[in-house]
């Protein structure tokens, strides 16, 4: 049987006809009928042509076979396309794509609110000339107590009881041991901040947690006085809480500072109506002049140098700042709470 291209012609016509039929169907059942009519293995018209391939002279077979396959896959594509358009129409509205919707944002995490406060505090003190220092959380009794002028049988040591590790080692109960480590390894002038976690045998309530963050500050040089301490902390408070902030120093006691003070702040600000408002006095830190015994224990000449130190709790400062009523919320790791503070 010679074909002189007539089978190819026939295929082209078939293709047009098939595509037109696909266009014309009204539902999936009709679409299936079209598929069987053209591609059905027994009766399908394209299959029929493919079956005739055997009778064609061998040299004409390849172009004819290629053409038949092309038409076949073109038709399969058209069928698929039409089938999915029926499926889309059938889908309930809520499954249809709405290309105008904004993308779904995923929460990729953020800094812990207490870490944010620590970073803010560090930024302010950096402008005041303080750099950063770190010390170990597992400390020795020497650094945590004795070098800080706190004999182990002193009542102040009981107040800061903590978890003991192997003999003579403990989890530090404050960041003050970093003062000693810094003075041992650096010559004055010294101006450092030491942030970190501390551990205490403390109650677990709205304002205490047995593990919490502290931020220690230390300045040592010739001629440093209590005036420098007051000015530095007042300036810090005004930069952090606003220019109207007031600072109060109440006499207190720490074995490692003399004199010592508790520092309170009162925020004074204007509310939305422009009226002046003020908060109560709120205690934010302990502070004082570095005790000469601490300077000596750290290897500095107490006749030549003086210094001041302070220690604050960024968690409490965060409570104030964000209006969080309970310190425990910061440390319970409930993402629903924490993610509210995640931002740039
Ligand atoms: N280390 C003290 C505390 O944890 C705070 C403090 C630091 C007080 C530095 C004075 C100077 O309570």
What Rg do the Cα atoms give?
A: 40 Å
User: Strand order across the biggest sheet?
Assistant: 1-4-5-11-10-7-6
Structural domains: how many: 2
Fourth CATH level, the homologous superfamily of the largest domain:
Bira Bifunctional Protein, Domain 2
Identify the CATH class of the largest domain. Answer: Alpha Beta
- Measured as a percent range, the helix fraction is 40-55%
* Bound ligands: phenylalanine
What does this 3D model show about the protein?
By secondary structure, the protein is α+β, with helices and mostly antiparallel strands. It folds into two domains: 3-95, no CATH class; 113-341, Bira Bifunctional Protein, Domain 2 (BirA Bifunctional Protein, domain 2, 2-Layer Sandwich), CATH 3.30.930. The protein contains 13 helices and eleven strands. It has helices spanning 6-24, 28-39, 45-52, 61-90, 113-127, 141-144, 155-159, 177-185, 226-241, 292-297, 314-322, 328-331, 335-338, and strands at 131-132, 138-140, 169-171, 190-199, 211-221, 246-254, 257-266, 268-270, 276-278, 282-290, 306-312. A hairpin with a 2-residue loop joins strand 6 and strand 7 (257-266). The mean pLDDT is 90. The site of phenylalanine has 11 residues, from strand 10 and strand 11.
